[in-house]
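Many introductory courses stop at the sequence. We go one step further.
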Amino acid sequence: MSELGAKIRQVFPDIAIKKDAANYSVFAGRNLPSFVKDFLVRKYTQSGGALEKLAIADFLNKYIPDKNNPLINRLIHNETVQLLTRFIVQADIQGGTVRFAIPDSGIKASDAVIPKNLLNEYKKELIDGETWGVIKLVYVRPSGREKGHIEMVDFKPFRPYSVDLEYFKECRQQFTTEEWVDVLISAMEYSPAGFATIEQKLEFLTRLLIFVEPNLNMIELAPKETGKSYVFGNLSKFGWLVSGGRVSRAKLFYDKSRKVPGLFYNHDFLAFDEIQTISLTDESELQGIFKSYLEQGKATVDNYEFMSSAGLMLMGNIKLTREMLPANATYFSELPSTFRDSAFLDRFHGFIEGWKLPKIRNDMFLKDWTLNVEYFSEILHQLRTSSEYALLFDKVVYVDEKSGARDLKAVKKLATAYSKLLFPHITKAEALDKDEFQQYCLEPVIRRRGVIREQCHRIDAEFKAEMS
């Protein structure tokens, strides 16, 4: 156990968890996100620190069956099945029912129904989109009919922690800023020792900004094997990772035929991975919707006004020289045409220079005490709605009246997000260390927004290369 790990365990006694590859081997063969694994490890760790692996194995076999134990067959043979799983809720307007799908178990929405009593009890949770929960399923075949359906007869949301932000802020006060940077790195399941400089650590932590700030839009270009997909696919159930393929207006924003909102509506953020391989259906329509949404957090589809606080992260690879610098000064030259439009790119608030990050090695995965991922993701989720950090920015940052509106908006949103992440305990101007705020919050965001401006200028000379 490192000195930092010991301190995390002391300061967060009810939340800390030990990352140990030997312990997590019990999950081999199961594709589970980190927030589920940590929940189970925490649940079955004895007070002395020993892990009850057999108990976890029993839980997995009972509630998270593998593909060798087909779920549908069990249901058809009249077995009642209880699962901890992700599932997708879909309203069937024509049929007047609400259906659900479990992609990991082969259950289609056309074969599965949520009854009205559950919908009435869990109005906020059982809405269109993906969610996690403990559900109980039965197979129902109405008398006189050959075809039956799967029915959800019980549901409990997967939210094992009640999060107290004030407690979290009090705990933050017991760490220095550099220690806290390492705490956050470890909460992302990486060893702080794997990063050569504080600059590398901060570049890596910038990926979390979109977790804590609503309607924040970011772009990261990086070489392969820098951990982009892992961060956005494993650390939070509130985000959605899109990995290549075709995406449509119906999937992202609003499905006109079913009259239901898309992925942006039900998530804190969407991350488009391998952006070079993503194509848009109805490209001209989607580009217009994107521009409106990225600018205002809302867009119009026919007569429906779509509104959401979800941010967008674009992630792609970039070719580098031997000196590990971009081979092309126009960074977005290899992106699909839709994503090379200067007016589209200008709506992104900041840029992550992924070539500054180390490639992920096996020794970079954490083997120490850190914050439980499920707890950490809940904290990040709750910080999104904390408005005091934006008010703090207004009090301590001088703004020239002639500043460009988009540039100012970008700088404020990024600096606010950094404040939430690095200094959650500071919400009053008199408590703020101005030098630290300048170093960790202002200077980085001016650079990140500056990259967006410069790249827009390279694509379209009408854009000024520098912020106004």
